[in-house]
Design a protein that fits this description.
Order of helices and strands of chain B: EHEHEHEEH
Distance between the termini of chain B: 24 Å
Shape of chain A: elongated
Structural class of chain B: alpha/beta
Shape of chain B: globular
Helix content of chain B: 40-55%
Helix content of chain A: 40-55%
Distance between the termini of chain A: 68 Å
Largest sheet of chain B: 5 strands, parallel
Largest sheet of chain A: 6 strands, antiparallel
Radius of gyration of chain B: 14 Å
Number of strands of chain B: 5
Oligomer: heterodimer
Strand content of chain B: 15-25%
Number of helices of chain A: 10
Chain lengths: 437, 133
């Protein structure tokens, strides 16, 4: 819309010594197309355009159509101009009927003198006057041919009318921005769909596992009963043997199921993983407790005198699971010999290591061992049992704590697993309470 | 001998528990869903121990545990939970039950645990009777 009154907008967005609108938009187009940080690119574009056009404020509003509201998402202000963004959130579209109609029609809104707005735009006028805006220029942004928002420039200095060329250039910018937003929306939708698919799959697995455990429990129970009955009769030794074998198979099935469940649970936790300050010595001792009780003479735990200061931001249950998994591996692959758990500080990290004197792992497999379904079958010469998900789960948990896990091993001599976790920096524990106190 | 109520919808498990517990001289009643389990609890005199599955049709085991613990007549009855659920998945608070078995469990372990709880409970109540009498 153009009015014939006193014009506030300058004729050309170009004055000597400044880059012209054309060059600015060319630079912006490259930036928007290659932006990994779209928000940053938008902010920079608004600044460049605002500066070239001599505007007081340049901004982007995005519409949330379902809720019937819009938000000022990005803003640039010239020095001395008060930012408005925070107050311009969640604005009902119904407050701007004339404005919205023009934008839906794909019109450029060009107000050269707010005082001269027609009565039909009285609601808009009220808002603009309250913000101290005298003149402005707004362009619609379309995503998928639907109005998604608008960019605007307030109080462009100097007077003059908008040239057709300049409007065309700004249209081009609006289009580029629309495309970039479209791309972002598509990526977000894709990510959300992926997450939902993952959640669905996990729910399915959980339910299936659940349903499988019931009949498994039934069979195990019946076998137990069978054994009790068989013991009552003479000459049933062979039946007892068969019962034992069947029970062992059921136990194996149950272990497999548990491992599978655990792997899915770890993945699902990707969505909800609760972190708190955790003292690593607590993790080590609590995790080792069961092993200690059974094979105490084989275990040695070494902690430094300042162990109480080794605190990480973590999920204690999950970290315990890592240590338990490493210990259970150590027991499995070293039928005899000592197992040592060492906790120490290494710069800004804490390191927990679990060493055994077992069969070890060939050099070329020390990384493969963390891959899902990798099995060290060839090492033992027999099936170690399980799916080979244990260390994969460990790595997942450790990496999600910002740490890393690795293995040093000499074949035939033993293995040491290292878990390195970033220490919580001093003073960053909120609330002042120490964990475990 | 004790009176035991087993509330379990997996018929095989219910059968095994009934046989094994009866084999140890207990008087066992089986309910195959939550609703009939709760009716049994309301109508019959309180049992000496309850074995309950967490996932039951009708009233869930979780709700049953809550109901039992909030009923004055029943709140002291020991509870043994059996479950096919994943660990920590909305289990009742630990103070509300005496033992928990994850499926598939060895029913002989459960029978042993039941016997121990019953012995402990009766020793406890004997003590109380002696000291109060």
């Amino acid at each position: 819309m153009t009015t014939m009154g006193r014009p506030y907008l300058k004729e050309e967005w170009n004055s000597q010594g400044k880059p012209g609108l054309e060059q600015t938009i060319a630079a912006i187009s490259t930036r928007l197309a290659n932006a990994s940080d779209l928000d940053g690119a938008i902010n920079q574009s608004l600044r460049d355009l605002g500066t070239v056009g001599g505007a007081g404020r340049a901004y982007l509003f995005l519409i949330r159509a379902e809720e019937g509201v819009m938000d000022n998402t990005h803003e640039w202000c010239r020095a001395g101009v008060t930012p408005q963004k925070d107050t311009l959130q969640n604005l009902s579209l119904s407050m701007f009927p004339w404005w919205m109609e023009r934008l839906v029609e794909d019109d450029i809104i060009c107000i050269e003198d707010v005082d001269k707005l027609p009565p039909i735009a009285s609601s808009e006028k009220q808002h603009l006057v309250r913000q101290g805006i005298k003149a402005l220029l707004c362009l619609p942004i379309k995503v998928n041919h639907e109005l998604a928002g608008f960019i605007g420039f307030d109080n462009v200095e100097n007077t003059g009318k908008w040239s057709k060329d300049n409007r065309l250039m700004l249209r081009l910018f609006a289009e580029l921005l629309g495309n970039a937003l479209e791309k972002r929306r598509a990526a977000e939708a894709l990510r959300e769909a992926e997450l939902e698919r993952e959640r669905c799959r996990n729910r399915f697995i959980q339910t299936a596992a659940h349903e499988l455990r019931n009949p498994m429990g039934g069979i195990k129970g019946l076998l137990s009963l069978l054994r009790v009955e068989a013991k009552k009769c003479k000459g049933m030794e062979s039946l007892l043997e068969i019962t034992d074998l069947m029970e062992r198979e059921i136990d194996r099935l149950s272990e497999l199921l548990n491992e599978l469940l655990e792997a899915f649970r770890v993945q699902e936790d990707r969505i909800s993983f609760s972190l708190q300050p955790v003292r690593l010595s607590d993790v080590v001792y609590d995790a080792a407790q069961t092993f200690y009780a059974i094979k105490g003479d084989r275990f040695r735990i070494v902690t430094p005198s300042d162990a109480h200061t080794l605190i990480v931001m973590g999920d204690k249950t999950r970290l315990e699971e890592v240590v338990r998994n490493l210990l259970s591996n150590a027991v499995k692959f070293s039928p005899s010999g000592g197992i040592e758990i060492v906790l120490r500080r290494s710069g800004r990290f804490a390191v927990v290591s679990v060493s055994d004197q077992g069969i070890g792992v060939p050099q070329e497999q020390t990384e493969l061992i963390f891959e899902p379904f990798f099995r060290a079958r060839n090492l033992l010469g027999r099936d170690p049992g399980g799916f080979g998900l244990g260390l994969y789960i460990c790595r997942d948990i450790v990496e999600r704590h910002g740490g890393r896990i690795w293995l040093q091993s000499v074949e035939g001599r033993g293995s040491t697993f290292f878990v390195e976790l970033p220490l919580l920096e001093e003073g960053s524990v909120h609330g002042g309470s120490n964990p475990g106190d | 001998m004790a009176r035991i109520l087993v509330i379990e919808d997996e018929a095989a498990i219910a059968l095994v528990l009934q046989k094994l517990l009866a084999g140890k001289g207990h008087d066992v009643t089986v309910a195959l869903d939550g609703k009939s389990g709760w009716e049994e609890l309301k109508l019959a005199p309180p049992p000496d121990l309850i074995v309950v599955d967490l996932f039951l049709p009708g009233i869930s085991g979780r709700e049953l545990v809550k109901l039992i613990r909030s009923e004055r007549r029943l709140d002291h009855v020991p509870i043994v939970i059996v479950t096919g659920a994943v660990k920590d998945e909305g289990f009742p608070p630990v103070e509300s039950y005496q033992a928990l078995f994850e499926k598939p469990f060895d029913p002989l372990d459960l029978v042993e645990s039941v016997n121990r709880i019953i012995t402990d409970t009766s020793a406890h109540s004997d003590c109380r009777e002696t000291s109060s009498g």
